[in-house]
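Schema walk-through. Below, the input block comes first and the output block second. Nothing else is stored per chain. Lengths vary across the set, and this one has 222 residues.
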Amino acid sequence: MKILSTFLLCFTFTFSLFAEEEYITLTIIDPIQEYYIDGAEIHESSDNHLIGKTDIYGNISFDKSKIQEIVIIKDGYLNRIYDISKLKTTIEISIEIDPSKKLYPVETKEEIIPGTSNQIMSFVDEEAHYQNSHKDLMTYIQENLVYPQYAINHNIKGKVYLKFVVLADGKVSQVKVIRGASPCLDREAVRVISEMPNWVPGKMEGVNVASYFQLPLNFSLE
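--- output ---
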């Protein structure tokens, strides 16, 4: 009987220790640029102890049972203090870009192909095209476009209109959004077109020339 009582006491004590743990999952986001923030540091506010860093999807899970407040730290963003004492489950927490550290896009120069004119034609005798047909272009996009996880989770959809240059050697250059749908969809549209293999360039009087091309990309969750 004494042995049984000791066992029950130990079991109860062990169970109570585990019962005190309270795990939550935080997802850190940039709602303006529609990013999941990976590598954001989560610190305990009271002593600045590092709890951990977010993964590529902005997620971090930890035991909050003894933590009142956290500080979210990410280079380029303002630190944010957040009270997690009443949180019970997964939650998204947004952080703001630090205006003093805002990164501006680097201006790129137009690509010049040796031995050719740098003039970009708006109208040509033969329009640039990808491989053999428009169907080949659609196949490439379907096989290579990745619907952003942020857009899936937030039900973001729409059509992105792009304008780019097919150079005289067939390379795709200067991909720009002329009418966007959302930041994360715009980024993916630019990425998938920028990474395309060479096209068949446009022709003017039988000579390969650089020419503009416009293309809409539709993002749908249906």
